[in-house]
Design goal:
The longest helix has 16 residues. This protein has six helices and nine strands. With 265 residues, it is α+β, with helices and mostly antiparallel strands. It is globular. The chain has one domain: Sandwich (Jelly Rolls), CATH 2.60.120. The two termini are 33 Å apart. The chain has a five-stranded antiparallel sheet with strand order 1-7-4-9-2. Helix 2 crosses helix 4.
């Protein structure tokens, strides 16, 4: 069954155990309306001004492309989202008090966008220790309904050692035991163990309104994690300069928790 948690309620031991078992947790309406409403135009700017495209190009070919002149976390509401206190409290319940921000990604997905095949997003660490958690926070700014498609997850699949693309050949097909998340209010968040297989299914009609989507990932400290953006040092340095953690989370933007970037990252 999906794990639904009221945004202001602390996780208890039973829910933590259920997250460990299933690999996901649903937080309906976690983001307050003032924050959500400021995030939407920032996502529009990120897409419409070509900043997202420049970020993708820099990740694909860091030699030929500079990072965007504005980073996502420099957008005020995005920076606030990264350290939204109810979110960090939930992450601390799952990972313990020490974890580090890994990366941020946001997009405005068109109503007719294709689905994304089954995959997981777990990155390796230099201890090759699968017990160390990486968690993705998937923020659905406009919620989920039949006009924007759905998220399907495969509970328990995070416990299997598998390549990210091990199920990609299945596309977005229905799988035995899957859970479909297709009804969420605006400002809802889904926390995933990053090793959990999941897929984005397209809207049945290909019509409706855009899906405003932000995801951020966080890693448990205890090893050095592989970064996925070549400008990760610049990203963490800006977060520290902006004092995004407000002195409450000293490890959150510390670069000592990462290996060097490689092109395969």
């Amino acid at each position: 069954m999906p794990l639904f948690l009221e945004g202001r309620e602390a996780l208890d031991a039973a829910r933590r155990d259920q997250f460990a078992e299933s690999g996901f947790l649903v937080l309906p309406g976690l983001l307050p309306e003032p924050l959500r409403s400021r995030l939407v135009p920032e996502v529009d700017r990120w897409v419409d001004e070509g900043l997202r495209a420049r970020s993708i190009a820099a990740c694909a070919d860091p030699v030929a492309h500079d990072p965007p002149p504005v980073l996502e976390l420099e957008l005020p509401a995005h920076g606030e989202l990264l350290t939204h206190r109810p979110l960090l409290r939930a992450l601390a319940e799952l990972m313990g008090p020490s974890f580090v921000f890994h990366h941020l990604h946001s997009d405005r997905q068109s109503p007719g966008i294709a689905g994304k095949p089954w995959h997981h997003d777990y990155e390796p660490n230099d201890r090759a220790d699968p017990s160390l958690l990486m968690v993705h926070a998937l923020h659905y700014l406009g919620g989920l309904d039949e006009t924007v498609g759905s998220l399907a997850v495969l509970p328990g699949s995070h416990r299997d050692s598998a390549d990210k693309t091990a199920l990609v050949h299945l596309g977005t097909a229905e799988l035995p035991g899957e859970v479909v998340i297709d009804r969420l209010p605006a400002g809802s968040t889904v926390l995933l163990n990053s090793a959990l297989f999941h897929t984005r299914r397209p809207a049945p009609t290909g019509s409706g309104h855009p899906r405003y989507f932000v995801d951020a990932s966080y890693c448990q400290v205890g090893a050095r994690w592989r970064p996925v953006k070549p400008f990760w040092r610049q990203m963490l340095a800006r977060a520290r300069a902006l004092d995004l953690d407000r002195g409450r989370w000293p490890e959150l933007f510390a670069d000592r928790h990462f290996t060097e970037y490689t092109a395969t990252g």
